[in-house]
Every structure is written in C-alpha cells, then in structure tokens.
Design goal:
Length: 399
C-alpha cells in the first residue's frame, strides 16, 4: 500500500510501561492487565495534550485473550483510563506482531479517511496469563491442517534452531549477539523518554515505583552465556533433527515479559490544526507469510516487499529494528541482506528488554524513532516475526 498524496498518517508520540519479568514476583506481576494498559493510554493523552474525546478508535494487540485479558481488553482499558464512553476499541491478535499490526491498521485507517485521530497499542501480562493457556483443546489445528502438515506445528525454539542451522550461525555468534543486546540496553540513557513509570505493590507487599526495564543484565558476560544449556534439546527432537547442534538457550532468546504500549496516530493536517508536533510519518506497510515450520523467517520476504513498495534499497534505511525473538532471527535477517550491523537494534532488543508479545511492537517503534532522532536519520524500518510463519514490516520517515 502506497502513501496517499492527500492524507498522511503521523506518529505524535509513543508511551510504554517499563517491562517486567513475566513471572511470579516480577516487577509488574501485581498489576491487572486492564490497569496496565489503561496506564499507558492515560499517560499518552496527558503527554500529548490530546482531548481523549477526539480519539475515534483504540486498536489494541493482545495475544493470549483469556482470563484477565479476555473480553476485548482494549475497550476495558479505554474505560478504565477515563476516556469518554463514546470512544470504541478493538483487540486483535497477530501474535508477536500484534501491536505493530495495530499501528499499521490505525495508519491505514487514517490514510483511507476512516480516522483522523486514533490510538494503537497493546498489552501482555505473561506473569498473569501465561503462554499457551488460550489453547484449551489438545488439537487447535484441525484435520485439514494436519493433512498438509502431518507432524503439526513445532515450538518456536526449534524453529530458531533450524534458522541457526540454515544460516550457519554458531552458538558463540548467538551469545555474542545476546551480550550486545544487554550492553546496548544497559548503555541506553534515553529509554526514560518513552517509559511511563507506575506505582505497584511488590512481592513483599510493599509499595514501590517501577521506572526501568527489569530484564537488562548489565553484568552479563560471554562466559556466562556460553555456560547455559540448550533449552530445546531432547531425545525426540534430536532424533527428528539429527542435523542440529542445539544452540538456543534462555540466554539467546527473548524474555517472557509483562508490558504495555500505546501511540497516538493522527492525520498530518489534523495534527497541525490541533497544535500537535509529529515525530514521524508511517509511509509504507507489508505483511508476508512463509514456511510455518521455519516459522520465524517471514521477516525476509516482508522486508523485500516493503522495500519494493517504497522504491528503496536497504542501504537507504538509516536504522532498523528486527525483533529479537531469538538471536538467530535478526542474525539470519542481517546475513540475508548483508546489512550494516551498527544500524540494527541500536538500543538493544527483546533479549535484554523483554518481549510482552501483544505490546512489543510499540517498544520497537519507540526505539526506532529515538535512533532516527539521535542520528538525524530519515528512514527507519521495523519488522517482527510471528508465530505460524508470518511477519509485519513497516517503514517510518522521521519528520
């Protein structure tokens, strides 16, 4: 989809929570998911000064839509944030790319004339609603799926192993990349620009303010990372994939995380009329599917499709965010495109910061915008691999 000459979607601002470890005792584990998402919606309105009554829709990502995250959590959070009852909301699931897809749908709606003012975001409380609890039956794929894929889907960690093997990425390269993620995140003194601190009750029942991401390990070393055992090797998998050397560990994979994010997207002329200063335009979009067993490789065709639509070479992109679902994923993307590693995930990624699956897209976009602003770059690319062999890719232009 190309940008309309008449209407342009711009990002005014992005707010996210600090990211907490998605387990009992994690920094945010005592917060209800609705309250967490309501916090960033409220803070976004406060920071931008927008009248919440002007918001025409709130498009929200959430992957595990059961229990505390069921029942259209976007609508519940809108009401919890004190928005007028006239503001609607919808919740979508495109797996890890849910918040990025929410942004893309919001921008596409602005370009098409369906919205002038819209919020896109997402939330995931993985300490409260763990992965896979939304799969109540033993078989959520069906007989026709199994007729095409007799062995069914595999765990994403196995896909990450297959990617490392295909692109000849060894264990030390994975762990070096993981160490880089922690070092860059620890050195990032601008993250507070995006984070809306919040007050919580900690595991000891004491009040505290959470203002920073919990997963960053500033003291990590290559030796520590190399000492970790492979996470997905077992007798059955070794027999099924004898070619694999088993390199994926907890240290070179993204962290299970709690978090929420939200961004204000406005038609450019409307933003000017409202006295809002946009940070970037959302200029081009692409989605792609790929092999659902390799699963995490669709970022490659999605990137190609995006660049073709924009008429740009990757060399023209000043910064790129490729989600660190596993270290092998951005490394394979980097090898495939022979990219400049200095432009990739310049403030670290999900290996250090964490990956609240329904909200991560907002964090990637926030980091990308800060990278463009810091280096006075023009074009930024964000792409996210997704379960089932899908991906989103979006091109931003700094204003």
């Amino acid at each position: 989809m190309s940008q309309s000459a008449q209407r342009r979607a711009v990002i005014v601002d992005i707010v996210r929570t600090p990211f907490g470890r998605g387990r009992e005792g994690g920094a945010l584990a005592s917060v209800h998911p609705v309250n967490l998402y309501a916090h960033v919606l409220e803070q976004l309105v406060e920071r931008t000064g927008i009248d919440s009554g002007l918001v025409e829709d709130v498009i929200s990502g959430c992957v595990i839509q059961v229990a505390e995250q069921s029942g259209n959590i976007g609508r519940q959070a809108v009401l919890a944030a004190g928005f007028p009852e006239s503001v609607p909301a919808v919740t979508l699931d495109r797996k890890c790319g849910s918040a990025q897809q929410a942004m893309d749908f919001a921008a596409q709606g602005v370009i098409a004339g369906a919205y002038d003012v819209v919020i896109a975001g997402g939330v995931e409380m993985m300490s409260v609603v763990p992965m896979r609890v939304n799969r109540m039956g033993k078989d959520n794929e069906g007989s026709r799926f199994h007729a095409r894929y007799p062995d069914g889907m595999i765990r994403q960690g196995i896909s990450a192993e297959l990617i490392a093997h295909k692109w000849a990425i060894d264990r030390e390269q994975l762990d070096q990349f993981s160490l880089r993620s922690h070092q860059l995140a620890a050195a990032d003194d601008g993250a507070a620009r995006d984070i809306a601190a919040l007050d919580v009750i900690d595991a000891e029942g004491q009040p505290r303010t959470v203002s920073a991401d919990e997963g960053i390990r500033a003291g990590s070393t290559l030796e520590k990372l190399l000492s970790l055992k492979p996470a997905f090797a077992n007798e059955d998998m070794s027999a099924r994939y004898p070619e694999l050397t088993w390199t994926v560990t907890a240290g070179n994979a993204s962290q299970v995380t709690d978090g929420a994010s939200a961004m204000l997207i406005v038609e450019e002329k409307v933003a000017e009329r409202l006295g809002l200063t946009p940070r970037a335009a959302i200029s081009h979009f692409a989605t792609a599917g790929d092999d659902p067993i390799m699963m995490l490789t669709a970022i490659i065709p999605a990137t190609r499709k995006l660049l073709q639509r924009a008429g740009l070479a990757l060399d023209a992109i000043d910064a790129y965010e490729v989600n660190e679902a596993f270290a092998s994923v951005p490394l394979a993307w980097q090898k495939e495109f022979n990219t400049d590693p200095e432009r990739l995930n310049v403030f670290g990624g999900a290996i250090a910061l964490g990956h609240p699956v329904g909200a991560s897209g907002g964090r990637l976009v926030a980091n990308l915008l800060r990278a463009l602003e810091q280096n006075k770059g023009r074009h930024g690319l964000v792409t996210m691999c997704e379960s089932g062999g899908m991906a989103n890719a979006t091109l931003l232009e700094r204003l």
